[in-house]
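We were asked to recover a plausible sequence for a given structure. The inputs and outputs are reproduced exactly as logged, with field labels preserved.

PROBLEM: sequence recovery
POSITIONS: 271
GIVEN STRUCTURE:
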């Protein structure tokens, strides 16, 4: 066998070749290959990456290597930072980069290193997520951003870089269900909607917490009128029980929404 190559067999007897390299006393798997030649080439590439300081994370040409881009990032990080991480992470002093692809590189705070070193970053349907305890968790949920929140309306990036997911760069505009932030003539307001058979407007409010409570009140009214849909609920941890109850009593709900509920109940009775 050529250097760094080991022959193996699948359950059906098909022969394939594994490539490995040892660096700083650590045995590193480089992947599986169809031919001994390809596996040896992977070993030579890894050996060069680990020994040639002129190759850096900033100038490496991922397309020139047979090794997968994730393994290249792992090797360079281990060489430069002396920490082996299976996921494609390259560390800096206060943050790290996660190379989802060679061109799709996300920045995270160093405080999240432990989490993302053990949770693989994935993308599906335009959403970033990780598998956590058997569930698919969106990455943005770690910042209190709701599923299906809209960039620019519900949240925004302070430096306009959507790949920078450091906490200081993410501004959560609308952390509550059913609330939309509006800006008109320099004035900020919050519109509340509830989705029953389409979006129904509940009202417009000057304070974010009022809009969130209005949504909860709209949900309660819907249930009182026989609508059994599984609505989410807004939790306002900054208000005491007494403050919440007072705001709940005082917040106004649009007459149009109340009329819709009355018509809905009458329709159900007559059908």
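RECOVERED SEQUENCE:
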């Amino acid at each position: 066998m050529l250097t760094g190559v080991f022959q193996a067999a699948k359950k059906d007897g098909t022969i394939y070749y594994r490539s490995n390299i040892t660096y700083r006393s650590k045995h590193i798997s480089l992947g599986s290959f169809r031919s001994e030649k390809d596996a040896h080439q992977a070993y030579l590439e890894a050996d060069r990456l680990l020994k040639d300081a002129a190759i850096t994370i900033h100038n490496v040409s991922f397309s020139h290597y047979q090794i997968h881009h994730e393994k290249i990032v792992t090797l360079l990080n281990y060489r430069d930072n002396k920490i082996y991480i299976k996921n494609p992470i390259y560390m800096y002093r206060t943050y790290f980069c996660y190379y989802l692809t060679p061109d799709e590189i996300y920045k995270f705070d160093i405080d999240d290193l432990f989490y993302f070193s053990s949770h693989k970053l994935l993308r599906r349907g335009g959403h970033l997520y990780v598998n956590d305890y058997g569930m698919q968790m969106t990455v943005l949920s770690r910042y209190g951003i709701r599923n299906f929140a809209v960039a620019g309306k519900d949240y925004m990036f302070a430096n306009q870089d959507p790949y920078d997911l450091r906490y200081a760069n993410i501004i959560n505009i609308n952390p509550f269900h059913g609330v939309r932030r509006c800006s008109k003539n320099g004035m900020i307001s919050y519109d509340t909607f509830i989705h029953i058979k389409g979006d129904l407007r509940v009202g417009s409010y000057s304070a974010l917490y009022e809009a969130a409570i209005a949504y909860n009140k709209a949900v309660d009214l819907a249930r009182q009128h026989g609508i059994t849909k599984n609505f989410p609920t807004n939790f306002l941890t900054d208000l005491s029980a007494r403050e919440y109850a007072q705001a709940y009593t005082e917040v106004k709900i649009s007459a149009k929404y109340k009329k819709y509920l009355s018509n809905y109940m009458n329709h159900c009775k007559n059908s």
